[in-house]
Design a protein that fits this description.
By secondary structure, the chain is an alpha+beta fold. It contains five helices and five strands, in the order αβαβαββαβα.
Amino acid sequence: SLRVERQSQNALAVARWLAERPEVAAVDYAGLETHPSHVLARRYLHGGFGSVFTVTLRGGLPAAKAFVEGLRVITHMTHLGDVRSLVLHPGSTSHARRSAAEQASHGIHPGTLRLSIGIEDAADLTADLAHGLRAAASAAAGVEVVA
């Protein structure tokens, strides 16, 4: 229960931080007050809103790829619910066999990433995400970033 509590706290902090970033087109997390199911989530999810959510970056696939490659703390992995924070590009993994229209109908766009937030320090996570977003913005602008 302590792990899930910490993951939920971190996920809410990270989702709020990402929602304020200009490089981000959308954050889909029920813990955000702007989410269409937030009222229901508050009613039924008393221990937090969970640790898994999606973020869609501006700049499409090049931005998403650069973002993932720019991360140092958050691991690129398909596993969810780990104590470590993880990132996955569903358009090229879990939903790769779906058409673009099917992906879009499920809210998956070229710049969509799934995050599974772990128990690391939230400030370390947002610093890592900031690094990834700088890489994503450069890729979206067509500029190569050297780490």
